[in-house]
Amino acid sequence: MPVTSAIELCVGILVGWLVGFRFAYGRIGQLFINRGRRGFRVRRVRCVPVESWYAWPIWATAPVNERGITYRAVLYQLCLSLSLPLVGCGMLAASVYFAITARSPWLVPLVLAALAISVRLLLNARFYIKAAVRMIQTVRARGEDAASLLAETTLIGAEYVLAQRPRDWDASLIERANLLVDGEPQGRCYWWAYNFALDRGDVDAARSYIRRLIPDTSVETECEVDLFEAAYFAARYDNDSVAARVYLEKARGLCRVEDQTWLRAEAAVLLAEGKDQEAEAQANEGLAAARDATHSGTLKAEVEWLRDILRRASGAAPSHGS
User: Would you state the pLDDT for residue 148?
Assistant: First the structure.
């Protein structure tokens, strides 16, 4: 429910601030809160389906310095897992006390609502507990290497939040963060590496990373940004409009990304399909949306990619191919 999501987001922001993490953006249903060039802004994300009001909140925070970064990352998860039950129980206790002292039957719905919120927060807390336990177990089992890997992936996230363009990210962090832990990529390593390579113009490397994230059109994923990027890359660099359209249609059902991201993918697919005028309109709309988007590192690259589509669609460059 929206109230629970709002509480969870506020707790996440507060806990992040206490451990030295900076808030970048958050989403509650169709409401998107982001730190932009002119401070914080709240707006409605039009591409998010109405039923997402009942989805969990999404937010991003990152450390502003490297001091004790591994321990702060673990502490962040632990504090979240403990804070949510405390907040829920506190709300329930306060509502019960208020209902008893006021002696009004009309306050019974308030107690029931507080009970529902408390239960939801308790249930959600278990996922943060699991994340914290997994981090601790990994560090204990793998020792210094795992701790360094966790620190490096967290630092890449910090560069993203602090609006450093992907091509300017620390190359050694990208390389080390793509080490494997138990055969699986740690966190969003491939996604970071994809943006890093693409923004540097290394199309082959970017292709290898996006294919690790989404090997082919049959792959099912709940990470919509990967599908949008797969659609954009297939259309813009592989000139495969059929695969790009499949990725894009799959992404529509999940569609919880910022406007300029899905408009960029849509424009690239239209361009690959030979619909230059429609692609130009979508690219212009994407550039307009980017002015109010989260002031992240990838936004700077996205703006350039949108302008590239616009140039090609308007005839300033060949309409197809790379």
Answer: 59
Contact, 265 vs 251, CB < 8 A? yes
Pairing outcome for strands 39-44 and 58-63: unpaired
Cβ(81)–Cβ(58) below 8 Å: no
pLDDT digits over 262-309, tens only?
899 999 999 999 999 999 999 999 999 888 776 677 888 999 999 999
Closest CA to 118 of 8, 9, 13: 8
**Residue 1, C-beta contacts closer than 8 angstroms, at least 6 positions apart:** 53, 54, 116, 117, 120
At 59 the three-state DSSP class reads: strand
The pTM score is: 0.66
Q: What is the pLDDT of residues 243-260, one digit of tens each?
A: 999 999 888 766 667 788
Q: Which residues of the chain have pLDDT under 50?
A: 47-55, 180-183, 319-322
Q: Residue 65: what pLDDT?
A: 65
Give the containing element (helix H, strand E) for 26.
strand 21-28
| CA dist., res. 35 & res. 313, Å (int) | 31
Burial 200-214 (b: 16+ CB within 10 A, else e): beeeeebbebbebbb
Q: Which two tokens stand for residue 136?
A: 């601790």
Task: Say if residues 26 and 58 touch (Cβ distance below 8 Å).
Answer: yes
Phi/psi of residue 236, each to 5°?
-80, -40
How far is the CA of 306 from the CAs of 83, 290, 313, in angstroms?
41, 10, 10
Query: What is the maximum alpha-carbon separation in the chain?
Result: 75
Q: Could you give the 3-state DSSP secondary structure of residue 173?
A: helix
Residues in the chain, total: 322
